[in-house]
Request: fold
Amino acid sequence: MSAAAGLSQTFDALVKWAMTPERQDDVVAARAEYSKLAGEVFDEDRQLELRLAGFLEYYLCDRPAPWANATPARARYLEALRSGPPAEASTWRAFTETWHGLFRVLGLDDGGVRLLALASRTEVQVVERRTLHGLSMGDVLEARLVPFEGALNFSGAWVWHPHEAAASIAAEAERRRLAGLPEREFLYDCARRSLKADRYRQIAIEKIYDFSAR
Reply:
């Protein structure tokens, strides 16, 4: 089994373990929180499927669940430590150590993507065998990186920002980095702007991603 397939299989098992019928009230509450952060999506939105994937990752990897006193990913990992072999626990651990951020594309090749994390100015190499259609040098994307089998891998959720917005996003990210501001608020601000750019094609991208207009 490839690393990508193993990662996907582990994530699907985590969804099944965490999102049980008796926890649906918490899932609904989390979905409302996520919509407020990243923007509400509708059936006709082009980003619907990716945003649903983004919500699952938010619920499992980022948000402490009241029923677990930890993120579901960490709760599953701790359960595996107590009751399973160490190798199995290390597999679950991958989703407790994800890196969610804004990245700029520095390089593309057959085996992966070289990225610059805008919040820390860190360069990383991500394993990716697929052809990422529509992604080009200099683009900015919101992504979650998962350490799995000794390498960084993309998760299943993305927010790809228009190429015309890349310079504005990078400049604002640098301003915020130098000011010591956390990335999370800015990341979700950009996610909301991405939805607006998709819905209102008559508005210039530069205007939608104008961070001086507060």
Summary: The beta strands are 99-109, 112-117, 122-127, 140-148, 151-160. The helical segments are 3-18, 24-38, 48-62, 72-83, 86-93, 166-178, 183-199, 205-208.
